[in-house]
Design brief:
Number of strands: 12
Distance between the termini: 113 Å
Number of helices: 9
Structural class: alpha+beta
Radius of gyration: 39 Å
Strand content: 15-25%
Largest sheet: 6 strands, antiparallel
Shape: elongated
Strand order of the largest sheet: 3-2-10-5-6-7
Helix content: 40-55%
Length: 318
């Protein structure tokens, strides 16, 4: 009964819709709205283009490490106390650690960052910069992580703005002694410098090496790829592809170097332990020898090989 009522209601709604629907009115509404639809489509396409055109690209570099170890010393000598935690999870945490990242950053040229600011985007030049800053002495730590504006002149002299103070007419390839620092600017490619100075606002930063690891930690991902195969994947994302590549490569090499250093220290500790045990055993043997000689003299025994036979004969008699 209930199904029949629902069926009748559905048929009645369809009948009402067919009577009430006005095709002409519908087409009129579509004609009125078509401009808005086209406008929304154009705006969407333009927004997508601007986003893709002016959003900095993010590049990712990755590498895979396979951990392999043959701890013969531990199996033979049972010297676990001299060897650290060698689990794969411990290796992952070591790669993520600030200590290893600091050691890695010391291997790549990130002490000074070179940038070019356009109308919208700012490009990090890293190793592609046509000039290089050679920092001799830093006198004021306030300049760390601050953009130091650089403006080249036609004769390739330059003006430098440091902490809202401008030093004009400085010469390239010469050491310059300012209140904040002593440095030298070396031009690597004059043609590229002239091309950049007319199109971009150039600046560089002297990075604080104590806080810089935090920036690299945010873009770093380390995970266990396969626990059975003991493989670890290292991934790093950055806007500069060369920096991403160099950081991942340097981090992998530094991890291997650090692991070898730990193994060397472990081997040295094991050898020191063996030497100490040899000395201890030698002292015990010498003490036993002295006690044995004293026993022989006290009991007037010349041949120790016959002692066991004498005792056995006595036991048999008893």
């Amino acid at each position: 009964m209930k199904e029949n009522i629902n069926s009748n209601d559905y048929k009645e709604r369809l009948t009402n819709f067919s009577h009430e629907f006005d095709l002409g009115l519908f087409l009129h509404i579509v004609r009125k709205s078509v401009l808005w639809l086209v406008f929304l489509g154009v705006v969407s396409v333009a927004a997508a283009y601007l986003y893709l055109r002016y959003t900095p690209e993010v590049f990712e570099a990755q590498t895979t490490l396979q951990l392999g170890e043959d701890d013969s010393a531990n199996r033979v000598l049972n010297v676990n106390q001299f060897v650290g935690d060698n689990s794969i999870e411990a290796k992952v945490e070591l790669i993520r650690s600030k200590l290893l990242i600091e050691r890695t950053l010391a291997q790549i040229p990130v002490e000074i960052s070179y940038s070019a600011k356009g109308e919208i985007l700012t490009n990090d030049h890293y190793i592609l910069s046509p000039y290089r800053i050679e920092l001799d002495t830093l006198k004021n730590n306030r300049v760390l992580n601050k953009p130091l504006l650089l403006e080249f002149n036609e004769d390739l002299s330059f003006n430098l703005t440091v902490l809202n103070k401008t030093y004009p007419g400085l010469q390239v390839n010469e050491y310059i002694d300012l209140e904040e620092m002593r440095f030298r600017l070396v031009v690597i490619n004059e043609e590229d410098v002239r091309a950049l100075m007319n199109e971009y606002e150039l600046f560089f930063r002297i990075n604080n090496m104590q806080t810089l690891p935090g920036k690299f930690t945010r873009g770093l991902e380390v995970r266990v790829l396969n626990n059975t195969a003991k493989t670890i994947q290292i991934r790093f994302k950055d806007h500069n592809p060369y920096l991403a590549r160099d950081f991942v490569t340097a981090l992998s090499n530094e991890f291997i170097r650090f692991d070898l250093e730990n193994r060397q220290r472990s081997d040295e500790n094991i050898l020191a332990f063996i030497d100490a045990q040899i000395d201890t055993v030698f002292e015990k043997l010498r003490t036993s020898e002295v006690m044995l000689n004293a026993y022989k003299q006290e009991n007037k025994i010349n041949d120790l090989k016959g002692i066991s036979g004498v005792y056995l004969d006595r036991l048999n008699d008893i």
